[in-house]
Amino acid sequence: MTQDYRRFLLPEEISRIARLEVRARHIVEGFLSGLHRSPYFGQSVEFVQHREYVPGDDFRRIDWKVWSRTDKHYIKQYEEDTNLKTTLLIDVSESMMFGSGAMTKYEYGCTVAAALAYLLLRQQDSVGLVSFDDGIRKRVAPRSRQNHLHAILAALAAEQPQKKTDIYDVLRQTAEEQSLKGMVVIISDLFASRDGIFRGLKLLRHRGHDVLIFHILDDEELDFSYSGTTKFEGMEDSGDLVCDPRSLRAGYLEAMSKYLDEVRRYCARTVIDYQTIRTSEHLDAALAHYLNHRIGMRQSIRN
Question: What domain range is 151 assigned to?
Answer without folding.
Answer: 15-32+82-302
